[in-house]
């Protein structure tokens, strides 16, 4: 089974079960390694969001565009999930990349994007200690792990869309 089929099946199951958050954030059974050969490979956010956009393009009545921002906002409030800042950031980063590549079936409006980035920055500052101890693949080359990775990459997201190469 290829990634597109896998992610589309996961998306359909999560839509049916009203658990879209699991799909967008790569949680539970929706965690799919970007490289299955690497033990601590991060979730394939870009692949998941590409399929999400394609599905929205075919079935706009599911309102996946507005639900995306709602899921991210709700997820940031989940105090139990210590990695929520990383997951929300990665989902927003993937969607932004797809938009900037011209392959998005919807775009997160500027006000929502700016509000999410502001909330992520505030939560990032509050989560330094716990995020510094997380050494996912993307954070392994940073002294403070995922905290430094997200801090650096979030600064890129704040720039104007045409100014950056994600």
Question: Can you put this structure into words, describing what you see?
Answer:
The protein is globular and about 40 Å long. The mean pLDDT is 86. The protein has helices at 3-16, 20-25, 45-58, 64-76, 84-100, 110-126, 128-132, 145-158. It has one domain (3-163): Serine Threonine Protein Phosphatase 5, Tetratricopeptide repeat. Helix 1 (3-16) packs across helix 3 and helix 6 (110-126) runs antiparallel to helix 8. With 166 residues, the chain is mainly alpha-helical.
Entry keywords:
166 residues, mainly alpha, Serine Threonine Protein Phosphatase 5, Tetratricopeptide repeat, 8 helices, 60% helix, globular
Summarize the structure.
The chain is mainly alpha-helical and 166 residues long.
Radius of gyration of CA atoms, rounded to a whole number: 15 Å
Low-confidence stretches: none
CATH architecture: Alpha Horseshoe
Let me know the largest β-sheet.
none
Fraction of residues in helices? 55-70%
β-sheet strand percentage: under 5%
State the helix count: 8
> What is the H/E order?
HHHHHHHH
Characterize the overall form.
Answer: globular
The tally of structural domains comes to 1
CATH topology, anyone? Serine Threonine Protein Phosphatase 5, Tetratricopeptide repeat
Structural class: mainly alpha
- Span of the ends, CA to CA: 28 Å
CATH class: Mainly Alpha
Q: What quaternary form is this? A: single chain
The mean pLDDT is: 86
Q: How many strand elements?
A: 0
